[in-house]
Amino acid sequence: MSSKAVNKSFKDRGTITKIYLKNFTSYNEVVFTPGRNLNLVTGPNGTGKSTLVAAIALGLGGNVKTMGKSGYIKQYIKRGEDTAVIEIELRDTPTKVIKINRTFTENKSVWKLNNESVSEARIAEVTDDLNIQIGNLCQFLPQDRVKAFSEMDPKQLLLNTEQSVGDPKLYEYHQNLIQYRREQKQLEEDIAQRNSMLDLHTQKYQALEETVSGIKERKVIKKRIMALGQKRAWIVYDQSRKSLTQAKDKSDTVARKIKQLKQTLKPTVELKAEKEIQIRKLKLSIDNYATKINKYRSDYKKIIEQLENQHAKISEIRHEVKHDIEVENRRESTITAAETQKNKLCNDLRIITEELGTVESINEKSNDLSRSLQKQRNIVGALAEEMTVLRQEIDKNNRSVASLQHEHRQLSDVASKRLNLLKSRNQDAWKGVIWLRENIHKFSSPVHEPMMLNIQVKNEEYAKYFEGMIATRDLYAFVCEDKNDMNLLLTHLREEQNLVVNVVHSDPHEQYSSRPEIPIESIRRYGFQEYLSSLIEAPPTIMKYLITMYSIHNIPIGTEVVEDNIENIPAKLQCYLSPNNIYSVKVSRYTGDKSIRTVRLPKPYLLSMVVDAGKIRQIESTIKDYERRQNDLLTQLRPIEQKHRDAEEENTKLRNAKNQCQLDLQQVQGLNSRINLAIQKLQQLETERKNIEDIKAAGKERIMNVIKKQMLMYTKCNSLADEALKVNIESETVSMQLTVLQKELANELEETKIIRENLRVAEIEHHDLEKQLQPLKRETERLYDDAMRLTDGANPQDTARFKPFKTAFGKLPGTIEEIDEALQTAQARVYCLDDHHGGEDILRDYERTKEYVEKLKQEIETLSIKLEVNEQKIEEIRDIWLPLLQELVETINGNFSKYFTSLGCVGEISLGHGENPMDFEEYEIKIRVKFRDDDDLKDFTKERQSGGERSVTTAIYMISLQELSRVPFRCVDEINQAMDAVNERRVFDLIVKMTSKADSAQYFLLTPKLLPNLKYTEQVRVHIVFNGPYVVPWNRFNTIDYCDGITADRNRK
């Protein structure tokens, strides 16, 4: 026997030997060491018993849903921590354990198998090999899923039982039977469908056979018509081809005549071309001579213009000589006037110097003023800088105030945003608000706009609580303090305007209590923080309505801790809230059983826009601080501005004085400049003195030079005239030569006129023949293409391809007339036959139907074989599975009946099925119980039995499976809920008895309470969980001293 087989036969394989937890829900760190048989886990509510069950489920591959809860695994991480650890040791062999570790954070789990990192799928393989079924309620029954056990339908109960006990192949057989039965139904359905299709298509095939014979005869005649058309096309083409050949021959004859005539004319043409070349050359020479003559004429004209210019220049020289003589005659009086002007300017300079000072003294005074002016500018600049700094501070202060005021307006503008939200959500209510604001004077007492506009949630995260608790119609409701006002408002809005609105009445003067029935301090340990009424601000009238109608002063809200303490919260709290859920509590007046209804909190829409009053107050305080700062800055700025104005005035005075100095300096310097110019003018007048005879001699010399230039120009004119005459004579000679050649050419052309006329006529004839040839050629090509198309691209030259057509043509008439007659006969025959529209489609449909009928027959035969094989498999497996299952159910029934009888009740387990025993999905385990003598046996359902009866039934069924178990352990959490003391004791004794056997599965039984004087065996290990924030730490708790103290207390009593 292999070691693997030995391992699997080891009866303790898969039992839990150790559980280690760190930062898991309420535990910082804990080690749990269970016993081999019954492990009784007890302790007060909320101390962490169910945490152990959750650790087993999550540590062996389960999820939050396995625990019957919603949410995510992150909720099992201890508050304030980021990571939690679950480590479970499972027995593998007598000397070896399997260690599974799961370390998880908010959104990630890391798995280890024997300290090696593995995937979650590998963990699933290991638990499957150990036959650990976390999701099977017959093995693993958490506290939140005890109710789910009774809600299992009989079919689910059978499947879970097969997985949990009996032959390991029992569940596999059942699943195979279900699958084979589904396949069997599908095969039967497929065969029936195909038989139906076969009948339908066989009838169609038989109907088509009668039509096909006529279609085939018509097809043969149409084929002959096609052949006749093909032969006719080739005959017509051949006739057209012959006509084309004849026309082409005629065109070629005329072309040869044209060629012969051109040959005759060739010498004359060559001589004509030669003379035409000579004529072109002579014409070109004549043009060149004309160009030269034009150029001589242009040059002659330019010289004449230059001669005229020289005549004008002589006149100009004579005028200049006359002018220079007159200037010299006036020069002495000009020098006297210039001297007088200079003396006057010198006298003016002396007077101004005495009055204003010299240039040096004025410059010195200007420099002193510049230094004073720079000093004053520095003072002005320093004051301006101080002013700029203060003004920047003021501007910055103003911007801060504006920003804060904008933020204040935005925060305070929640009312308009909510009004817009109301408009988008409830048009009628919005219209009512607009009307009310315009007509508020019509009412005697205050009328409040819809509550959603008046309720201010202190924090937007609280909005979801109020929208979850307060009906939407009330959030849209108007609130009247006077009933007459309410009737008046309804009349105007509903009756007159047909608006669908809600209006409620709330009298603020009526007495009511807003104090909670249970002080919040009394329930803080369950995770509660505030009552709903303390989370909003609203007008007293609206607050009174919410308290009296919804008791918001008695509805507490809390943290996630609330969800972990649901069973411990006082039943007096009929409604409370966690961050995600609304919990409504009802207590049965007959049994005292508490039922809790959980509803998910909605996403807020209407109240999520809130006024942050604290933020507004903070902003207003900051604005006041800025305003005080503004006043301080303005107080500092005013004296500096006055100093700056005074400094600017002094600066202006200095600048004016400096400018006056500059004006004085410019005046003195201007006189100096004018004196210098007068001196220079006198010097120039003296320097420019000339002798009158010298002026006359220079003018005469200049005139003689001009006359010499004129003589040269006259000589050039005579030369140009001679050249022009010579060129003109040569041009006349060439013109005469041109006239002679042109006459000779005209005579030669006259001699060849008849030949050229014959050539012209021949060319016109050839052109007409070619023009007539083109349509004939196109028609022949068209006829050829038609014939080729009709014979599928084969022509007579392609012997191999055309052979079938040639053979067919040999059997047909030979002339166009005979072919046309044969075509008429064939077409008349086709007309006489029935015209089956879409005949080709009918033939194809006939062939397709024939093939499809054969295909259906083959498919039916194949499916029938498969069905036979399937039925054989079902019969083989059923013959194995059903006896095993019946035996198992009888065994469970024996145990169940026996244990129920020991409780003084009656119970039975039976195997049931649907109307057809072959529908294996309909097989089920029925539980029927009777708890009272006057009752009949009734099916076990969640509706028929009480909570205590369901708990007893569940416990007995689990015990009945115990000795048949093939799972390594079972886990049941608080199964004794709602049991009476007698039944609880009997159930406990049965569990102890069954789990004390050597071959029983390991058992975990969790309960918050134990009856006194229960019987325990050596195989029972009791684990007391006493965990909590106020409990003595484990390292300071002495078990022996604690037990001695209890004994002493009992002895004293």
From TrEMBL:
At the top level, the lineage of the source is Eukaryota
Asked whether the UniProt record includes Aminoacyl-tRNA synthetase among its keywords, one would answer: no
Q: Which InterPro entries match?
A: P-loop_NTPase, Rad50/SbcC_AAA
Pfam families recorded = AAA_23
Molecular function per GO: ATP hydrolysis activity; single-stranded DNA binding
Coiled-coil region list: 170-218, 244-324, 616-702, 742-779, 846-880
| Protein keywords | Coiled coil
Keyword presence, Nuclease: no
GO cellular component terms attached to this protein's record? nucleus; Smc5-Smc6 complex
GO annotation terms (biological process):
double-strand break repair via homologous recombination
Q: Where is the Rad50/SbcC-type AAA domain?
A: 18-198
Family per record:
Belongs to the SMC family. SMC5 subfamily.
Protein name in the entry:
Structural maintenance of chromosomes protein 5
Q: Which organism is it from?
A: Microctonus aethiopoides
